[in-house]
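Run log // design_07
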């Protein structure tokens, strides 16, 4: 599992990433129960350039991942390697870092979290710009700061699509799948209200939680 994970991302979508993710689901309990004091002879230095071996850092990473009870910790760890920070704030997952456009970042993190959560709430913030995504298939609610896509927009996402495929790739808000909006931030659309209530978010407090992190 170590060499396999060295070449793959458990949150990626490439074929080798999906293979690693499926394998991890099968073996992670055994990794968590591994007897570390007898694993020393498995940690060997590479004898050739670009050799695929399990080093101590890779071994320790495997143990950390396997022993974590929080599936979101895996996503946070991989985002941290990209200098992105993922934190939970009253059910909203806030991602911060150095990026100019929070829309694709929020969409990507929402797609990753949806593998583990029924309803996903993501708030991507950087340089005074922010995008908020609420997703529970097939409903996708998107809100943004004045510098991005101001106000609310509601989309319908078919089984073959994700927030990433729906929201990224264009210069502005996409029209495909749009069912409502734009609606001013203070007037949350009914479908968005339902998503937020399912996630236990205080609707009256939401604008403050979003605006406290950007204009």
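design_07 sequence
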């Amino acid at each position: 599992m170590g060499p396999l994970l060295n070449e793959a991302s458990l949150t990626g979508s490439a074929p080798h990433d999906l293979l690693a993710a499926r394998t991890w689901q099968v073996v992670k309990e055994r990794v968590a129960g591994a007897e570390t004091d007898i694993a020393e002879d498995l940690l060997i230095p590479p004898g050739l350039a670009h050799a695929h071996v399990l080093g101590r850092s890779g071994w320790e990473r495997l143990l950390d991942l396997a022993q974590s009870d929080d599936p979101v910790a895996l996503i946070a760890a991989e985002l941290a390697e990209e200098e992105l920070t993922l934190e939970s704030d009253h059910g909203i997952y806030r991602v911060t870092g150095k990026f100019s456009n929070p829309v694709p970042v929020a969409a990507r993190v929402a797609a990753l979290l949806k593998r583990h959560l029924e309803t996903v709430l993501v708030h991507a913030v950087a340089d005074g710009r922010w995008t908020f995504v609420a997703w529970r298939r097939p409903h996708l609610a998107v809100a943004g700061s004045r510098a991005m896509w101001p106000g609310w927009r509601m989309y319908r996402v078919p089984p073959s699509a994700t927030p990433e495929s729906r929201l990224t790739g264009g210069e502005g808000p996409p029209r495909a799948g749009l069912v409502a909006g734009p609606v001013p931030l203070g007037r949350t659309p009914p479908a968005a209200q339902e998503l937020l209530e399912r996630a236990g978010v205080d609707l009256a407090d939401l604008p403050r939680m979003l605006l406290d992190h950007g204009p």
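Helices lie at 2-6, 15-32, 56-67, 71-80, 102-113, 163-167, 190-198, 206-211.
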